[in-house]
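I am still getting used to backbone structure tokens and would like to learn alongside you. To get us started, please write out a protein record for me. Start from the sequence, derive the backbone structure tokens from it, and show both lines together. Once you have written the record down, we can walk along the chain together:
***
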Amino acid sequence: MVEVSDIGQHFLIGLQLTSKLTDHDRTLLSELQPSGIVLFAKHFEENKPYQEWMKSLDALLSEVRSLISRDIIVAIDHEGGTVIRPPQPVTRFPWAYYWGNSTKEIGQAMGQELESIGVNLAFAPVVDVLTNKENPVIGRRAFGTTPDLVTTLAAEFIDGLQQSNVCACLKHYPGHGDTFKDSHVELPVLTGDMDYLSKIDLVPFANLHNKTRFIMTGHLHIPKVDNNPSTCSEKLINGYLRKKLGYNNLVVTDDIGMKAVSDLFDSDDFLLRTMSSGTDMIMVCAHWTDTRRSLDMAKTIIKGMNSGKLDEEHISASKKRINDNMASIQNNSVTQLDKNIFEQHQKLSDSIEVTDEGRVLTSKESDYLA
């Protein structure tokens, strides 16, 4: 009989927003056995010296590993600008929009620092093409305004980042750069058709998918492509990403607690369509929703398999992708870096010229961007 823990690999869980595990977390991780966790700023003791918050982080990750009976993903959003979760001395690089010729070097620096805090998956690079400069959620998170520039710079970042046993993740598939709304608060609607997407938004994904083990789907509605949101779009995930591009690694949703789709995931049908679409992992983080809902979602997946509403072949194929990729993902330990390394990285950051061009998000807006 299939148990909840057998389905847990299809989830990434954001811990409660505190630097120590809560009973809520302990129970959930033990029962669900997710593929891994997502770290946010409040998981670090930011008011303590480097050595102390690193010790606290090490204890947190050690306890998480003791509750999950296999190697895990430790993921984090780490893009530059204000989308940087760990406290100093982790380097505050500016937004990716400004990196230019320093992109690969910044990727190397970020990878070295992330590896040292036990992270093995960075939800970066943002490969959205910023075609709408009034975009309320992407802005200077993007590398640029053309698909070629985004592709070139994102490739350099990936090469740098992945030198340090930290996996990159392309986001937000199929492209969030032309939106006027923020999917954290509502579901954006894009007016383009598949022909338009294939010439603009999909170009970086088409060019870079073979460089990464992870692609994150955005919560978008593109009615000329699919009546379903991209989160559960069989046309965009199985149809284009897997069949047309041949991508056979992992697809993870953006946080399903975000208001664009949170209520939709109360529907069993929407959840089962997501799992049938070619998606492998559902991200459930504590800022936006109750992470315990992942247990009910796992039970719904089991019911769907038992009733025939969810083809077991989809789950079997997804499990194989998860197992194949997890076998090659490094388990990084928490290791303090010499202060000279941070000084070198800070010099690199200081060398980047930042202008007033483009919309920049405030720190408050960015605390839980994914």
